[in-house]
Amino acid sequence: GFIMFVRLGSMLLLLLLLLLQFGHSLGAPGSFSLDYQKDCFRKDGEEFRYISGSIHYSRIPRVYWKDRLLKMYMAGLNAVQTYIPWNYHEDFPGRYNFSGDRDVEYFLQLAQDIGLVVILRPGPYICAEWDMGGLPAWLLNKKDIVLRSSDQDYITAVDEWMGKLLPMMKPFLYQNGGPIITVQVENEYGSYFACDYNYMRHLTKLFRSHLGEEVVLFTTDGAGLSFLKCGSIQGLYATVDFGPGSNVTAAFDAQRHAEPRGPLVNSEFYTGWLDHWGSAHSVVSSAIVAKTLNEMLAVGANVNLYMFIGGTNFGYWNGANDPYGAQPTSYDYDAPLTEAGDLTEKYFAIQEVIKMYHKIPAGPIPPTTPKYAYGTVGMKKLQTLSDALETLSLSGPVKSKYPQTFIELNQAFGYVLYRTTLPVNCNTPTPLSSPLNGVHDRAYVSVDGVAVGILERNKVITINVTGKAGSQVDLLVENMGRINYGKNINDFKGLVSNMTLGKDTLTGWTMYSLSIDDAVSQGLLGETKPTDPPPPPALSLPAFYKGSFIIPDSIPDLPQDTYIKLPKWKKGQVWINGFNLGRYWPTRGPQVTLFVPANILSTAAPNNVTVLELEEAPCSSGPCSVEFTATPILNATVQSDYKWERRLFIKDDLL
Ligand SMILES: *[C@@H]1O[C@H](CO)[C@@H](O)[C@H](O)[C@H]1NC(C)=O
Ligand SMILES: *[C@@H]1O[C@H](CO)[C@@H](O)[C@H](O)[C@H]1NC(C)=O
Ligand SMILES: *[C@@H]1O[C@H](CO)[C@@H](O)[C@H](O)[C@H]1NC(C)=O
Ligand SMILES: *[C@@H]1O[C@H](CO)[C@@H](O)[C@H](O)[C@H]1NC(C)=O
Ligand SMILES: *[C@@H]1O[C@H](CO)[C@@H](O)[C@H](O)[C@H]1NC(C)=O
Ligand SMILES: *[C@@H]1O[C@H](CO)[C@@H](O)[C@H](O)[C@H]1NC(C)=O
């Protein structure tokens, strides 16, 4: 019966969508402008106020874009705001990808078909708790580049990227029959130390040259004069951002300081907040979100709900804050739609508020997608990472006297193995150290094939080692995500300064760039050597594990979404059928389960789970397994002495 109901529901939805498409995808040119007399936007001559929500297409599988946008539309929103992460589309200079999950044009088309206008935030910097705030790591090829400034090399790269992107966006402008009503330039530039007006002037000219004179260009900054000082500039309409519980009058007074007339706009109204590994999961009550939303709508303001759905930092895409604290894989954000697109109490609370001001579309809301608990999957050990080096290091090792960074090794994400030898006998425990705190961000250390400890940026800069002169020392260094906010976004990865042993600087490094994702998706990892000695109790060598499960075709409507849980595993990376789901770290928390979207699962072949466990798998004392459950856990008690001191909603505190 339930399934029938869902089927009927989706047929109605399909019908609704067809109707919507008929009404909206005509592509007749329109007009969209600022009205400084009436303090509002004007769309095709009519007064227009948007209630928008943020969805980052880069955090949601393409097959779910329509579902999420439709849920947004049915809540009564009339606009969607999205960032374009530069590094998601240009992984090497001049190499672009706009297909599949990266097909931003398709996302824009869907928004338009559903009846949402679009507020586009193409950067070049986006912040967004996204690796390096969306800037490509290869910009760091120039060691002393000043990002987000008039630095000539930075500007050259920006000009080329925008020369590719903005002409693609131009047909989607409202004036040209598309959905894009406004375009943001840069992002919260007033929070950045550089305060380079020439840079902002350059971007303004660049955007105008590609998009024309008509489109409304705007900036967004914290709702305080100190932010607006360097963030707002003539020719770009200044908007502000602030969260629930703020004094709405005072916040918009700040915007009025920069824009005495024109529409009031909160470009980021925080429906929840971000998380960090090792600090409690952020939760914001629906009541306070509804209260402040109501206050803003009552004064006629335009609002964007950040986030409407947060989604997932798949793969290696999470960012980090400074002092170094990486964000977890889930970007649930305690948003009105969960990471998996589920309807929440907050969704309906927001709908209730909007109802008081605007007509809500009639018809069914797409239901929460069902989840399925596939159960327990046995895992067996494959090779250790160092045994698999030949498979993983396609380009072969690089040798140098002192360690090189990821970027020098031409690798952006993931893991690099640094290898050297003990120069002297260390019969007693001898400190192996990164005196300048240059392990970015975590190193799994072994001596002669025995795991001996972990170094961690800002937390553990020294461990003791013992061994004979000539013993092999391996440091597998993990890039846990680049800082995305503040003055240290030029976040080099790997060993970014020298390692010492006692008083000596270690030299003679051999470094292996690792193409782990390719090896996993091509199934190249072999089984473990049966002669492996049993690992010591506390720590074992980073190694791969594999398991598979079959989805029964006797059950209708599978595959469905699910969550993977790794009980008793410590920290690592997990792939399903070659798709990199992201990092797991249940021993640090608060995230315990990872979202597994149905589209990566198969009913035609066994589903392959690959795990790279960095610390210790629970397999040494017997069989080990992972588990697929129907319930997410994002709020476990955190196991860390690391306190991320912050008040909610105040980005100042992240500086
Ligand atoms: C482009 O991105 C899509 C979506 O992530 C991916 O499937 C595809 O393999 C990428 N193409 C290239 C050439 O890397
Ligand atoms: C909010 O800010 C306004 C303008 O600064 C001020 O007059 C008012 O007293 C504030 N309200 C509260 C509750 O603090
Ligand atoms: C290293 O060993 C020395 C001598 O045993 C000890 O004093 C020191 O605390 C140890 N350091 C670490 C980081 O374990
Ligand atoms: C390591 O030390 C040497 C000698 O002092 C220095 O030239 C080099 O720049 C250092 N390398 C790094 C990565 O800090
Ligand atoms: C899982 O791996 C096996 C071979 O190891 C392969 O035959 C199968 O197609 C893979 N499953 C999927 C869904 O790719
Ligand atoms: C986690 O969230 C669930 C569901 O909201 C709640 O029942 C549980 O008490 C929370 N656990 C912790 C440790 O906060």
From TrEMBL:
GO terms for cellular component: extracellular region; lysosome; membrane. The active site is at residues 188, 268. It comes from the Eukaryota. Keywords: Disulfide bond, Glycoprotein, Glycosidase, Hydrolase, Lysosome, Signal, Zymogen. Its EC number is 3.2.1.23. GO terms for biological process: carbohydrate metabolic process; ganglioside catabolic process; keratan sulfate proteoglycan catabolic process. SUPFAM superfamilies: (Trans)glycosidases, Galactose-binding domain-like. Residues 1-27 form the signal peptide. Residues 542-603 form the Beta-galactosidase galactose-binding domain. Residues 403-514 form the Beta-galactosidase 1-like first all-beta domain. InterPro entries: B-gal_1-like (IPR026283), BetaGal1-like_ABD1 (IPR048912), BetaGal_gal-bd (IPR048913), Galactose-bd-like_sf (IPR008979), GH (IPR017853), Gly_Hdrlase_35_cat (IPR031330), Glyco_hydro_35_CS (IPR019801), Glycoside_Hdrlase_35 (IPR001944). The keyword Hydrolase applies. Cleaves beta-linked terminal galactosyl residues from gangliosides, glycoproteins, and glycosaminoglycans. Belongs to the glycosyl hydrolase 35 family. Homodimer. May form higher multimers. This is Beta-galactosidase. The lineage of its organism: Eukaryota, Metazoa, Chordata, Craniata, Vertebrata.
